[in-house]
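During data preparation, we tokenized the protein backbone, and the record follows.
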Amino acid sequence: MVYIEPQKSGGIATLMLRRGKVNALNGAVVDEMRALLKTYENDPEVKSIVLTGSGKFFSFGFDIPEFLSFTKEQFTEYLVNFTDLYTYIFLYPKPVVAALNGHTIAGSCMLALACDHRVMVSGKAKISLNEIGFGSSVFAGSTEILRFWVGSASATKVLFSGALYSAEEAKSLGLVHEVARADELMDAARKTASGFASKHPPAFASIKSLLRKSIVEEMMRRERKSIQEFVDIWYSETTWVNLQKIRIYEA
């Protein structure tokens, strides 16, 4: 793997995103994460998963400079793969815990929300679905997953404001479950992952599916149309100008 560093210990597989200073998401990252999750889904030694990042970012979100060179068709293909990934994580039969080691922005927030539990580092780190701030939309699936965790009123607040929330603010909204100091983050995530893993795996997988399958069915009914709408807005004149001003590698 090039951008994701996997490690197995004590029945927990940890996937650490390592891609530059901000761990921006692109097609290679999506493919690597999906491949590792597929492998661990069928690995009897792995009872639960922890997703985290390196440095001061869990992830900045999409690698916007890279995607500026994409055609609409290429970008649409990426978005289909990306939304398929968060849907896969949302229904993943084994527990998935997100250890948010730093800023968790836009697309990476969507991946974090697809997990079963989120522990976020205290301090300067922010979490946000800030797409509206640069003139972009979101997806049907990410909206339903957000609503699953925080309810419709808070989901509306998060998406319409595009605000950047501290870990403590995010916890009050339901975006994250726990806040931990940097030196305690991974221990907290592994403790939760171990707790989930102690449950009878078939029972955990069944209950998770019962809680979420109907939501995913609604997501899938509307996802492709929302992707097309997302692409149309992304390539609109106003949004395109805003996207070209973003310099993620200077963050």
Q: What stands out?
A: The mean pLDDT is 96.
